[in-house]
Amino acid sequence: MLKNAVFQSKFLPYWLVLPQLAVVLVFFYWPALQAVAQSFLLQDAFGLSTTFVWFENYQELLADPDYFSAILRTFVFSVLIAVSSLSLALLLAVMADRPLRGSMFYRTLLIWPYAVAPPVVGVLWIFMLNPSLGVIAHGLRAIGVDWNPLLDGNQAATLIILAAAWKQISYNFLFFLAGLQAIPGSVIEAAAIDGARPMRRFWTIVFPLLSPTIFFLIVVNIVYAFFETFGIIDTMTRGGPAKATETLVYKVYSDGLLGGNLGSSAAQSVILMGIVIALTAFQFRFVERKVNY
Q1: Buried b / exposed e across 95-122, counting CB within 10 Å, b at 16+?
Q2: In sequence order, what DSSP letters do the residues of 5-19 get, joined into one string?
Q3: pLDDT at residue 291 in the model
Q4: Shortest CA distance to 287 belongs to which of 216, 207, 203?
Q5: Of 233, 270, 255, 285, nearest to 121 (Cα)?
Q6: How far is the C-alpha of 113 from the C-alpha of 25, rounded, in Å?
Q7: CB contact set of 205 (below 8 Å; sequence gap of 6+)
Q8: What is the pLDDT of residue 290?
Q9: By the 8 A CB rule, do 157 and 232 touch?
């Protein structure tokens, strides 16, 4: 029999949630409000002079073709990273869900890469695919592929997508595996008795039952591609060559910290925050309709 929790003091529940609320306010809402306020200002790099310029920072951004190129590049990166990491993670989860000897060992190995920090991921992939030191780069040149991401923007973008997707596969794998194990075996056995082949069972039964997990991971992976790939880009290419890997989040960093244009950097962060909020709302409004709970 379930019992309702009764607090001796009516203020105790508020004291319990106060630390989390303080963290959210101090580290999320307060910096966001500061960015909004700073986006209306024109400041020098040392903060010695400040001028209120209204929407001039936004107007300059919207008139800059490089900014729209960064937006398009970010969307392309996000789609490719999300699709590739989700597809590979689902494939690995389906294979790991089978009754195999040593399956727990393999599952643990597949989860480990998530503990690797993004800058470390960048260093690992640079060592493998560096045109002069990388083992894989030497193999590519041996088969006639002219591999040099330091000069070729398309190759640099491919390198970023591969590294970012590899980093996220473990996270997606963990949720897909949990979702597969939550599906009742009797449902799949009944379909097998009815004569449904493995592929048909997967697409008509397993995949629809995984739709809540897939929807959650789509939202998480889009946010990851927009924000958490910064460390990988900064370590591997620093937005180059010729800004071929400069995404919105890295442009905020390069224009603000490296370029000293604090007002434009703040305006970019506000726009980036608005884009992510709009994308998340769109997914909850339209994509969630396809989810079967």
Answers
A1: ebbeeeeeeeeebeebbebeeeebeebb
A2: ---SSTTHHHHHHHH
A3: 67
A4: 216
A5: 233
A6: 31
A7: 183, 187, 188, 191, 196
A8: 67
A9: no
Q: Cα 220 vs. chain centroid, distance in angstroms? A: 6
- 3-class DSSP assignment, residue 52: strand
- How far apart (Å, rounded) are the C-alpha atoms in residues 252 and 234? 12
Determine the residue type at 166: W
Low-confidence ranges of the chain (pLDDT < 70): 1-7, 45-47, 287-293
Domain positions in the chain are 51-290
- Which amino acid is it at 55? F
CATH of domain 51-290: 1.10.3720.10
pLDDT of residue 193: 81
**HSE on the CB side for 181, CA within 13 Å?**
11
